[in-house]
Amino acid sequence: MQTHFTTEQLADPKIREADEILRKCVHCGFCTATCPTFVITGDERDSPRGRIWMMRELLESPDSVSADTGYHIDRCLGCLSCMTTCPSGVDYAHLVEIGRGKLDKLVPRSLADRVMRKILAITIPYATRFHALLWLSKLGRPFAPMMPSRMRAAIAKLPTRIASLDPVGATTKSFSPTKPKIKRVALLAGCAQRALHPGINASTIRVLNRLGVEVVVRSEAHCCGALAHHIGETKAAENSVRQALLAWQDEIKNRGLDAIVVNASGCGTMVKDYGHMLAGDFELGHLAAEISSMTVDISQLLAEIGIDSIIKPAPDNGWPEISYHSACSLQHGQKIHDLPQQLLRSAGFTVTQPVNPHLCCGSAGVYNILQPDMADALRTRKLFTLRQTGAIAVAAGNIGCISQLDEDTLPVRHTIQFIDWASGGPSPL
Ligand code: SF4
Ligand code: SF4
Asked: Is 322 exposed, middle or buried (0-12, 13-18, 19+ CB in 10 A)?
């Protein structure tokens, strides 16, 4: 794609980066077919190609930007399916980040939108606050019809069954292995995950301890910063990133770490990108690059160590057939698609895949709260295809997808919970 930035514009490193990305796009349109929002609306402006065009316009000629541009760029899930499809290697992830940053300064958001984003940014990244918010929303549900429509839609997205708050991550703690130690890793306990599904961290620690891995959880690393980063709450995101980086640096210096392990793929994609995010940061740039290079999804660590030694014999009636939902942040963001399925198969499960596994379920961080109509349409499609597999349960590697898709008649659990079950832990079903 041709670009026409002025020399003055190109003095801004963000514009230079965007220029390089834009020039790679040959406008072939291969990405449109795999873009979930284009699949739903059929509107070019809801496709990656259309959004790339609009982002070039807004970056080159900021004066011409309209609310319409904001509307269609806001509808992008950030699922990165377009990056998997693109034959030219267009780095859409970083382009949309730059585009959204500029857009936020050019097109003021409505008061309701700003209030909603602020509420999300000051609650979800803090597990205790988010847990309290879940209770408040449950108590407030009978009054929802009297609330503004955005608030009503947000409450409808929050679960009515509330688990107890996950204690993992509340304080700094090490969990020792049950056999001779082979590795020592730091686990990111996460924020929303602790409030929504306390069993995931417990399963992760049990499985790693069985394999001989010591796990340390630092309470300061309470959130990866992804949620705030994606909704434009830059200051809040920077604080979370800084706290996590310094806590892990302290751990590396004092007791040593072999890896940073993440079991929520949305967070993993973010931590693996810290090096890029902070590339120009004099103080934290090197540390961020080091942390990103040490970060692995839980499935990568398990595949490296091998899980055969801890798997128990199948029960008399066998392990159930499960369907695997490939979270976008794992398959597109981190290019991990087959690994979790191979692990589940080595654990003894029969694993199926829904059709169109590349399509997003509509969760995408807080997208399901900010764009409830599109998110609902994608959820319905995904549940339909998952049910078509005939499986009795679903495995997924990201808390967002788990919360978005979980149903009484089709439970969705984390992949690690199934591996924990097959290696002597409790049934997640
Ligand atoms: S597939 Fe890649 S090169 Fe083709 S239009 Fe999409 S982003 Fe551009
Ligand atoms: S990130 Fe996802 S929703 Fe956004 S343009 Fe790419 S494929 Fe479409």
From this structure: buried
Burial of residue 178, with CB atoms counted within 10 A of its CB: 0-12 exposed, 13-18 middle, 19 or more buried: exposed
Structural domains of the chain, with CATH: 7-106 (1.10.1060.10), 111-157 (no CATH), 173-303 (3.40.50), 311-422 (3.40.50.1860)
State the burial class of residue 141 (Cβ atoms within 10 Å of its Cβ: 0-12, 13-18, 19+). Answer: middle
Query: Tell me, what amino acid is at 16?
Result: R
Summarised one tens digit per residue, pLDDT across range 300-314 is 999 999 999 999 999
Mutate to test the pocket of ligand 1, among 49, 91, 92, 358 (most ligand atoms within 8 A of CB): 49
The residue to mutate among 24, 28, 82, having the most atoms of ligand 1 within 8 angstroms of its beta carbon, is 28
Ligand 1 centroid to Cα of residue 214, in Å, is 44
Q: What separation in Å is there between the alpha carbon of 4 and the centre of ligand 2?
A: 25
**Both structure tokens of 239:** 């604080």
**Residue 142 pLDDT level (bands cut at 50, 70, 90):** confident
